[in-house]
Structure to design on (229 residues):
């Protein structure tokens, strides 16, 4: 299941256009953060009133993403250089391939039209995706970007039995790795290290069973390091 989250959209018309694109490609769950459904959104939504009627509204991003297993941030910035690891993104086709391997609740997160997602907001995502566009003008209209991604993902079909690790499991993994790093004395560039670990875990699309096994292993490592310290 793939949902769309709009973080503080500036224009009601774009909310309606996004709902319309979702209707076009068979997606139904729209989430708004820091906004609401207004008259202009209704006008632009055309035959997607059912999606607008069922839109979930939250005040904070933290509350909005709580129920999702995988959070995918969208950005116009991309690089293929390994020294820019935190800025390396999937293409829509690569994202589809990843999602085709597992089941779970996935959210596509889109930022405000004028600025997009901040670095901190992108750091909260499990992975990021960029739509390949011309280098002369990379930024796309919000509803157009949503349409491109949903068109690509609309071909995902069939039930996938392999469950992706949930957000709670991923958070436990990250916390254990961070604690192990601290016990091992690895404190240099701590924030960057923690963000990198989060991205590695997100891109790996770890399954529930794998997460359980890794968590058990990490806890044992942490216990042994505490004995030494």
């Amino acid at each position: 299941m793939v949902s769309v989250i709009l973080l503080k959209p500036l224009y009601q018309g774009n909310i309606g256009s996004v709902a319309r694109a979702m209707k076009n490609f068979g997606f139904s769950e729209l989430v708004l953060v820091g906004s609401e459904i207004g008259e202009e959104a209704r006008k632009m939504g055309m035959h997607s009133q059912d999606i607008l009627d069922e839109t979930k509204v939250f005040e904070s991003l933290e509350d909005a993403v709580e129920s999702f297993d995988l959070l995918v941030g969208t950005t116009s910035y991309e690089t293929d250089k390994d020294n820019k690891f935190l800025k390396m993104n999937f293409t829509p086709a690569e994202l589809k391939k990843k999602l085709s391997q597992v089941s779970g609740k996935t959210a596509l997160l889109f930022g405000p039209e004028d600025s997009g997602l901040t670095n901190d907001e992108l750091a909260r995502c499990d992975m990021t995706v960029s739509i390949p566009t011309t280098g002369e003008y990379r930024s796309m209209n919000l509803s157009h970007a949503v349409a491109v991604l949903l068109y690509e993902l609309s071909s995902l079909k069939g039930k996938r039995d392999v469950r992706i690790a949930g957000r709670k499991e991923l958070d436990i993994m990250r916390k254990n790795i961070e604690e192990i790093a601290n016990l091992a004395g690895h404190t240099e560039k701590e924030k960057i290290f923690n963000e990198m670990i989060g991205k590695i875990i997100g891109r790996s699309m770890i399954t529930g069973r794998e997460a359980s096994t890794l968590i058990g292993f990490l806890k044992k490592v942490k216990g042994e390091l505490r004995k030494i310290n």
User: Anything to note?
Assistant: Residues 12 and 38 are 6 Å apart (CA to CA). The chain has a mean pLDDT of 87. The first helix runs from residue 12 to 25. The domain at 2-153 is CATH 3.40.1280.10 (Alpha/beta knot).
